[in-house]
Here is the input.
Amino acid sequence: MAYQQLKGTGVALVTPFQKNGSIDFIALETLIAHVIKGGVDFLVALGTTAETTTLTSDEKKEVLAAVMRISNGQLPVVCGIGGNNTEDVVQQLKEFDLTGVDAVLSVTPYYNKPSQEGLYQHFKAVSAASSKPVILYNVPGRTGCNLLPATAIRLATDFENIIAIKEASGNITQCMELIRDKPDHFTVLSGDDNLAIAQMAIGMEGIISVAANCFTKDMTDIINLSIVGKFDKARKVFYRILPAIDLLFAEGNPAGVKCALKQMGICEQYLRLPLVPVSDVTAKKLATYTKP
Here is the structure.
């Protein structure tokens, strides 16, 4: 595939659930139709926002198959396959039916707190096992470890199928070092909705967004305007929805975005423990942005 397809606005899809806890595939279809209509450039299944750690192996495969069936080739699809047991991640890469999938998104191992060399060896094994291009995912606020620019660049240089990174450290200086020193073929994508314009301004080429589930057109407008350097227009949209973006994360992700999606009539806000719905206070504040 042409890797430039995995630039612009990617959406980290939620996994809708029914009241009994089962996956709501009808709502997933509604959600995908909504984000495609809103102009996203690619879909990301089974990321953090999908509550993937609470899905069984069979459910993960069912969700991916549904995303592929519903999207039906309209947009590129990225599948999240990661974990803190390297051998298990390698096995998943072999077992999952990745037919038609354009790339895998693989998070840094969480809880173990590996060294930079440990991270390098982990992703070396992921690279070797993956039949698809690999997007690294750095999110130290969730994982307890930080994939430093030097290590990401070493991986991108040594393994040609490591094509991009979703960078969610929130550290602008680290992001600038990564962008400054990266190989030309390596794409840096934002993983922080509330830093989107700043990160596009320093040279990122897109985002994998939570907010694009609900505020789809606004997020795609922000990224598309930033790509062509129209930051004055992008700022107007960004500052209008920035309070709403903050509300999406005020009580955890995807609790906030599922609340917004319920208010928009796209899916219910059922979550799997240990996640719970947002408070009435946050819901009322979000409603001022989601109601027509």
Q: What stands out?
A: The beta strands are 8-12, 42-45, 77-80, 103-107, 134-138, 162-167, 187-190, 206-209. The chain has one domain: 3-241. DSSP finds twelve helices and eight strands in the chain.
